UniProtKB/TrEMBL annotation:
The gene is folD2. The keyword Hydrolase applies. One of its GO terms (molecular function) is hydrolase activity. It comes from Clostridium saccharobutylicum DSM 13864. InterPro entries: RibonucZ/Hydroxyglut_hydro (IPR036866). This is Putative Zn-dependent hydrolases of the beta-lactamase fold protein FolD. Keywords: Hydrolase. The lineage of its organism: Bacteria, Bacillati, Bacillota, Clostridia, Eubacteriales. Pfam families: Lactamase_B_3. The keyword Transferase does not apply.
Amino acid sequence: MKITYIEHSCFSVEFENVILLFDYYKGQLPKFDKEKTIYVFSSHNHHDHFNMSIFELLKEYPNVKYIFSRDIKTAFGRNLFNKHGITDDIYEKIEFIKSNDVLETLDLKIETLNSTDEGVAFIVTVDGKTIYHAGDLNLWVWNYKDKIFNENMMQEFEKEIAKIKNRHFDAAFVVLDPRQGEWFYLGFDYFMKNTNTDKVYPMHFWNDNSVIKMLKIMNCSEIYRERIISY
């Protein structure tokens, strides 16, 4: 299993026969093996998680499949896809998946959680390995929001993580967002303390990787800091 950080919340994960590509919106992609099937995942419709340019892969690679959160279909509709050159034939082959769903293909098993923002989080099992990609599922508490909002957010986040409590992940891609100020680490920390994750890759840090270093020296991360991947 080879993991490559692309940019923001985008990662590629290469296996013997398949490649997973999560939440691409910009950045230089690796050159992939054309014999492998590429599964392209988009967790929701936000501009920093989804870009129509991912369909350019079809020009270079013969086996590309698209798995999108259903909110992308709702937000953009077939007409906008068509305007970007996505033909009806291609559009019909996109798998639009809802939250709390399960989809199995010949190569992999896909499960979803409900995001605390938009769309879904993905859990993908392939070749005996299980990968978690949070999308925008995070503990989004903010200084400028009132107490009720933040308490409701905490309840919603904890409800979703309870569905995967103590579950093993070989690798997890988890939000660590500096815009949250002093609370930047809360969702990441809660995830790590409630799952059995071998390696965790921070994402969604808006090119400010100083938050990774900050978390690693905080007391709360003592039991898992060696499993945090730095860039």
